[in-house]
Amino acid sequence: MKGKALILLIVAILVQVMLADRGDALDIYRIGGENQPPPPEAENPSVNFYRVPWSDFIEKDGFDEAAFAEGILRPLFLTPEDNIALTSIVRGGGPYSRGCGGYQFLLDGCNAFRLVDGDVNSFYQKQPYGYVFQSGDRRSWLIFDLGGAFSVNRVRLISNPGASLFPDKVQITTSMIPQIVERGQYGGVDPGRTVFAVEENNQDTIETVFPTVRATEVGVEITVTTSRNMEISEVEIYGEGFVNRASYVSKFFDLEAPAILGQMRWQGSKDDPVRVDIQSRAGKTLDPNVYWRNTGRGDELSRFDQTGKLLDANGYAGLKQGEAAEITYDIDNWSFWSSPYDFADSLGTPVVSPSPNNVFQFRIDFQPDALLGAELEFLEFSVTKPPFAQNAIGEIYPAEVPLGEVSQFVYTVSPTMTVNHSGFDRIDISAPFGFVEVDSVQATGLKDWSVAVERPDSSLFTVQLSPRREAGDLGGPVKVYFRAPVLRYGTPFDGWVRDSERPLDLPQRVNPGNAALELASETLSVRTSLSASLLADLRVEPKVFTPNGDGVNDISEFSFSLLQVTEDVPLRLEIFNLSGRLLHMQEDLHQSGRYNFSWDGRNDQQKLVPPGLYMYRVVAKAKNGDDQQTGTIAVVY
Question: Cα–Cα 20 to 30 A to 325, which of 161, 249, 395, 515?
Answer without folding.
Answer: 249
